Amino acid sequence: MKFLTGLTIQLAIGVVGLGAFSSAHAGVVELSTGFSYSRSNYAAGSYTWNRRIGGSVAYHFSATSGIEWAFQMIVDRTVIANGTLQDTTFNDRVYSLNWVQSFLPRESVFQPYVKIGIGQLNRDAEGTYSGGVSPPARLDALTGVVGMGFRLYLTKTFAIRGEATTYLQGAELRTWQDNLGFTLGTSFYL
Hints:
With 190 residues, the protein is mainly beta. The chain has one domain (2-189): Porin. It has one helix spanning 2-25; strands at 28-43, 46-60, 65-80, 86-102, 110-128, 138-153, 158-169, 180-189. The longest helix is centred in the N-terminal third of the chain and has 24 residues, at 2-25.
C-alpha cells in the first residue's frame, strides 16, 4: 500500500510538472487508456478469462520520442474441470516508467511505436492447483516492460491506440510470453 501511495504522489507531481514543462518547452502531453477482455471455454466447467485495464501519462519531448508513466490492472481467472484440477485468480498491478520511441512523427495519420521500461509488479493470488497446492498469496517484484503498438489519429488531439505489452517478471527476458496482453484504447493530447 505504501508503494501505491508513493506512486500516486509521484504521478500527481509528474502530471503538474509535465504540464508546466510542456507549456514552457512546446512538448506534448498524452493521456491514454486501454482495455481488453478475453475468455476461452475448454470443456464443461473449464474456462479461463483475462481482463486488462490500463492508463498512462506521457511527455513527448520530440516528434518521435517520449517518456511515459503507465499502470495496468490485470485479472487472470482459470478453472479446470469444475475447479477440481485448478481454480486460481491472479490480480496483478503493474506500475512502470517507459521510454516510448515512434517510427513516424505525430503528423502522420498512422504512428507505430515501441516502448521499453522498468516497473513494479504487485500480485495477489488465491485458489488452488491440483493436489491442493496454492500459488504464493502475494508477490512484489521488479519487472521489465516491453511493448509495441500504434496510434491512428482521427484528429490532431485524439487517436485510437492499439498495443501489445508484456511485463517481464523479475526483469528476465525469457518470461516475455508469461504476461503478454493486447489492449485497445484511446489517446488524448494536451
